[in-house]
Amino acid sequence: MSDNQDEPQRGDSEVMEVDAKVGDSQMDGKGGYDQADALGLYPEDPSSQGRQQPAFKDLKIHVITEIADIRDDEFNSQTYKTCENVGKAVIVSNFMEGYVPTGKRDLAIRQYATGDCVKLENALRRIGFQPLEKDEDSMVYKNLTKSQFIALYSKVAKEINYRPKGQEGYTSVLFFVMSYGRSGLIRCHREPEEKGDHPFVEQKHLQEAFQPQNNHSLALKPKLFIIQTIPEATSEADAIGGTEVTTTKRIPREADFLTYACDQYCIKDNNVFIDSVVHVLNNLAKEKEERKPAMEIQKVLIRMNKQYKDTRANKSWKLPCVTSSLTKQLILF
């Protein structure tokens, strides 16, 4: 099967609408992110010239928070700002209940996925994470096509205000993905009219959408990604298995991201990776309810890796990988 998927060019209508202005501050556009960069006063990074990008239909971006609004004490702090609201959480689960394979060589249903989603959402709610929209009952988005997946992460990354003026903001945003795939590649569903292989979405495109030049309110907010891409099983295989700016605060584009990823097949009677994550999240929720001191995120990930290591049925399974560009300590609550 071929893994190469053509992506359409960005259209002329997909233009960032910016309602802001810049004063006479000195601005250096090399290697980082600042107000001028966000306003598009500098040309696109030459390294991205000619790169094909996914199209976002009818998507217009509005700048909703000014970087200048970030207080100096937050900018200079050694820890990320902790808000009463722990964060927004989105769970994407593909190839689960509701998906129907169309042939013997098609990808199998992940029978265990429904239980994983229930356990995971319950644990995240106990800690204090909220669904994307207040009127939504669930954090879970099931069986998304490539266009639906792109539209969803674009909305999460670009249309939500994570630090509304005069209101309590959000400590972080969490994007959780469970699907088939491999390192750096996430399988999505075919469009109804499509034939052939199910398409991939590159993980880097998902994370690039959350860079703060796309949404000022995500500046200095930790963007957390937990991604499980299981090696593929076919249905023949074991299926179970406007403000004046006077100073420039520079924030590197790649800063404030954390990714926790597992691309190992780790299914026995249950999904060992998800169960390890849920086990640690539930323990954290219990500690929060008992008003015990909260842990820094790196210690949380160490707990998750230890739990996975101690419970994996096959000792040859490699441990999940942590990739972090966080620049401060992160305490969720």
Notes on the protein architecture:
The protein is α/β, with parallel strands linked by helices and 333 residues long. 23% of the residues lie in helices and 15% in strands. The protein is built from seven helices and nine strands; from the N terminus they run ααβαββαβββαββααβ. Strands 1, 2, 3, 4, 5, 6, 7, 8 and 9 form a nine-stranded mixed sheet that branches. The chain is globular and about 60 Å long.
Topology readout:
Blueprint: H1 35-38, H2 72-76, E1 85-93, H3 113-127, E2 129-130, E3 140-142, H4 146-158, E4 170-182, E5 185-187, E6 200-202, H5 203-208, E7 223-230, E8 257-262, H6 272-289, H7 297-311, E9 321-324
Parallel strand pairs: 1-2, 1-3, 1-4, 4-7, 7-8
Antiparallel strand pairs: 4-5, 5-6, 8-9
Counting helices, strands and paired strands, the structural category is alpha/beta
Order of helices and strands: HHEHEEHEEEHEEHHE
C-alpha-based Rg, rounded: 20 Å
Low-confidence blocks of residues: 1-65, 235-248
The helicity comes to 10-25%
Number of strands: 9
- The helix tally amounts to 7
Largest sheet: 9 strands, mixed
What are the defining features of this structure?
alpha/beta; globular; nine-stranded mixed beta sheet; 333 residues; single chain; 15% strand
TL;DR?
The protein is built from 7 helices and 9 strands. It has helices at 35-38, 72-76, 113-127, 146-158, 203-208, 272-289, 297-311, and strands at 85-93, 129-130, 140-142, 170-182, 185-187, 200-202, 223-230, 257-262, 321-324.
